[in-house]
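Review this:
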Amino acid sequence: MYLLRRIHISPAYLLIPISLSLLSAAFEGAGMGLLIPILNGFLQQNFAFAKETPYLSDIVNLLPDSVLNSDRMLFVVMLVGFIVIYTLKNVLRFLSVVTTSYFSERSLHHLRKTLFTQYLSFGKLFFDTTNIGHHSTLLMDFTKWALTPLSSIDKLINAMFSLVAYLVVMFVISWRLTLVALPLFVLLHYAVRFIMIRVKALSRAMAKRGSELGKKSIEILSTIPLVKSYRTEHREQKLYADISNEKAKIDFQVRTLQALLLPVQEIITLFVATGILMGALAFFGREQIASAPAIIVYFYIVLNASNKFGALSAFRSTLAACTGPLDEVLILFDDSSKYFVRGGDKKFAGLKHEIEFKNLSFGYADDRTVLKNLSFTFKKGKMTAIVGPTGAGKSTLISLLMRYYDCPEKSIFVDGTDIRELTLDSYLHHVALVSQETLLLHDSLRNNITYGLDDVPDAKVYEVIERARLADYIAQLPDGLNTLIGDRGVKLSGGEKQRVSIARALLKGSDILILDEATSSLDSKTEQLIQGAIDDAIQGRTAIVIAHRLSTIKHADTIVVFENGGLIEEGTLDELLENKGTFSELWEQQKF
């Protein structure tokens, strides 16, 4: 019920299949009750007793005299009544199954949708510390397993109500025999309980292996070039096969235990019911129990009741088997260790003066401090370059500006306002990023360039394509902007990816442009092409540039130098070269 509330599905919808199952069970009980007088009359060749039988007589006496005075007609009417009752019972049962299936499928849809929304709300640090393969398995498989009980809840409801109807009929036939038979169900309960304990333990192991399988498949398929270059196909195949084999063994054990339930129940029922019946006949005598037809029906009901009890046991087995996946799903609804980055309630209308860092210190989840007591300013309309050796904290600073991670309170100010007080939508609307790792979708060039924007006129798209130096490349493509670029843009070169990223940033029209080592992995000719696009892009914008190649930042208004997470130098190019400090050393190293 907790899970249903979290996905905004009202349990009240279950009242429909519950009501249908209740009616189906009532008709089933009535059919069982009607079977006894039909057999009695058929064996005695006389249905006169039906006019005086409690409950039955109230209905029979409503029939016309022509029917009441004919045993054959009474037999036909009662037989037709039995057929109608069982037909209605099956129609209601079908409707119960259909409504339950609809409810469970809609719940599964809402669960997947809610979990995906949950994932999108988590901070980037959550994904840095977890495995994408596990999340893929959870979304596609664990959600279905977690809600499996819903898909079979109609069987549970029907079995419960049918058992009640059976018990009523059994007490009507013989309360003595029923009191003797009740311990049978206690014995069945403990036999099932023993199996359930083992199934529940295996369920958690099954969920763990399923997660490992998902992790391994995503991990290897996303690093195919690495596997190919080191010729580790056979090793990875063996590792995957080993995990899959372990999961298959656990799945087989669970299925075996679940399959064992029904035979165990039927064997116990057959022997115990036969023993109870023989013992009761010997102890009470048949006359003190019921008529021969009633005993036959009673024995049939006991066997049917055992099957219904089996449905209850199967549901308990399903609950046990879904324990592991359900636990994994519920973890996502626990807000701890999700590293949310929440915005404030102030609207950001665009940068007017500056972005200021005041004594900023920041570390990731492992408590290692990456940025140490940083204080400096990015001025509006100016180009500020950030340089420093690898691991100095440059990209971490950009991640904080992009709000991928939550910064400490009162450490970053935008026009004097704490960045944490600004709404994420309004702030990020004015910020665009071109990173070294260009993120692209398996979609058309057009959709990758216009990502996040709606109803963009073609004129604006072609304008940014020209400015990003993409026009000549697109003109060579048979499908132009409609060309599919493959998974993560695999059909594009490094320079083409960067130009798509620049076009995307230009189209966004943000007044703050961040470039994170956008040309570090390109050859000199492509770098010149990209640099021209970048120089065009930063015109009239507040530009923040992380530079690996220092020659690309000669025109920066201010250069800040990082080392070991701290700010060690700040100034113009000429000032830093005159200081003969760390920047000067880096410059000399790259002069060749």
Notes: The longest strand covers residues 369-379.
